[in-house]
Amino acid sequence: MEHRKLGRSGLVVSRLCLGTLTIGPLQANLTLADGARVIRTALEEGINFLETADLYETYDYIREALVGWTEPVVIASRSYDYTYEGMQSRVEKALRQLKRDYIDLSTRDCIPS
User: Fold this and answer.
1) In a domain, 59, yes or no
2) Which region among 29-33, 63-67, 104-108 has the lowest average model confidence (pLDDT)?
C-alpha cells in the first residue's frame, strides 16, 4: 500500500482511507467481531487511515480492531455539532469509546450556508 504525507500535518497516511459508516448500525450493522475483523483486515493490507463520525456509532469497532495493533493508525472523526461545546463533547466521547488519548483529525461536517 502506498503512503503519503497528509498536507503539512506531518501525518503519513495510506492512499486509501477506510470509511467505517458501512460496517455500523446505520448500514450493514455487522456484529462487533465482524466489523472489527473488516477493519483489522484493512490494517493488515496496509491501510492506516480510518474515517468515522459520532453519528456512525463505529468507535467500538475501531477500538476492537486496534487491540494488539502496534503500527501507527490515523483516525479522522467528524462531528455534526454546531457549537464549540457540542464538538468538544463529541471529541471527548470519541476518546472514551476509542480508549485513546487523541484523535488525529477532528472536523466539522455539514456546515450550514
Assistant:
1) yes
2) 104-108
**56 part of a folded domain:** yes
Q: Is residue 40 part of a domain?
A: yes
Q: Determine if the pTM surpasses 0.85.
A: yes
Spell out a b/e string for 64-85, using b for 16 or more CB atoms within 10 Å of the CB, else e. ebbeeeeeebbbbbbbebeeee
Distance of CA 24 to the CA centre of its chain: 12
Instruction: Provide the number of structural domains found in the chain.
Output: 1
CATH value at residue 93: 3.20.20.100
